[in-house]
From TrEMBL:
The keyword Phosphoprotein applies. The keyword Coiled coil applies. The modification 4-aspartylphosphate is found at D54. It comes from Gimesia alba. This is Hydrogenase transcriptional regulatory protein hupR1. It comes from the Bacteria.
Length: 266
């Protein structure tokens, strides 16, 4: 963990010297500034975790100074150290400077040490919250990117599927998709255009309700047999055709078959 920095701001040199002596053995860097302007100059150059400021200083009060610190360095924990502990000053400091603690002069040495340790813990908590917020923002950006990629992929897949379905529908060869349960799940336009007697081939129909016994036997043999395909010559509407039936497998799992009909010319 990087060493933290404490900034003490007071217009009285003796007060700053006393704080240096008090805190010289603590595990953080201590920087002093002789007034609000000098304190702001330090903050512009250093990453400060805690600011301990006097209230009544010439040129800029502690409340005014800490209000600027709150605006420019909101994670810096702010403490007022003042010999004038009137209620109005305390309230004004809290309202304008978002003060974490208000300590009075003369101070208790141990109270100063404990307060600064508490302030450092508060600073670390604010840092963790900021880091967590940034991490969540980055995760949200990545999630949005992945969602967009998924939407693009789904869109392209859908377009590809629609195109494939359109191509299949327009193929001038009758094609029927049949499930493993002998139910028609696909039939292209060529089925009823080329063989009007098969116009009852509708999705969801059982093959035994629409096909001849020869076609049913061919499909049944294909689905239940050991061969991957069956080809049988038949006559439909006085046309010599060949029925091709090919299994569709998903690994070892039977999904169904594709039935196509091709005219035979000798």
């Amino acid at each position: 963990m990087n060493q933290k920095t404490i900034l003490c701001v007071d217009d009285e040199i003796n007060v700053l010297r006393s704080l240096k002596r008090l805190l010289r053995n603590e595990d953080y860097q201590l920087i002093t500034a002789n007034g609000g302007e000098e304190g702001l100059a330090v903050l512009a150059e250093e990453e400060v975790s805690v600011v301990l400021s006097d209230q009544r200083m010439p040129g800029m009060t502690g409340t005014e100074f800490l209000s600027i610190v709150k605006e420019k360095y909101p994670e810096c924990v702010r403490v007022v150290l003042s010999g004038y502990a009137d209620a109005a000053t305390i309230l004004d400091s809290i309202n304008k400077g978002a003060i974490y603690r208000f300590l009075t002069k003369p101070w208790n040495d141990e109270e100063i040490r404990v307060t600064i340790r508490q302030c450092l813990s508060q600073y670390e908590l604010l840092q963790e919250n900021r880091n967590l917020t940034e991490e969540i923002k980055l995760q949200n950006v990545e999630l949005n990117r992945l969602n967009q990629q998924l939407e693009d992929l789904v869109g392209k897949s859908t377009q590809s599927l629609h195109f494939s379905q359109e191509v299949l529908a327009k193929i001038p060869i009758p094609v029927v998709g049949i499930s493993a349960e002998s139910i028609v799940v696909l039939a292209n336009e060529a089925v009823d255009k080329m063989y009007p007697t098969l116009r009852e081939v509708h999705l969801g129909s059982d093959i035994k309700d629409i096909f001849s016994s020869e076609i049913i036997e061919t499909v049944t043999n294909c689905l239940s047999g050991s061969k991957q395909s069956e080809t049988v010559p038949l006559t439909i509407e006085n046309k010599q055709i060949r029925i091709h039936c090919k299994k569709l497998m998903d690994g070892d799992h039977l999904r169904g078959c594709v039935l196509s009909m091709e005219e035979s010319y000798g």
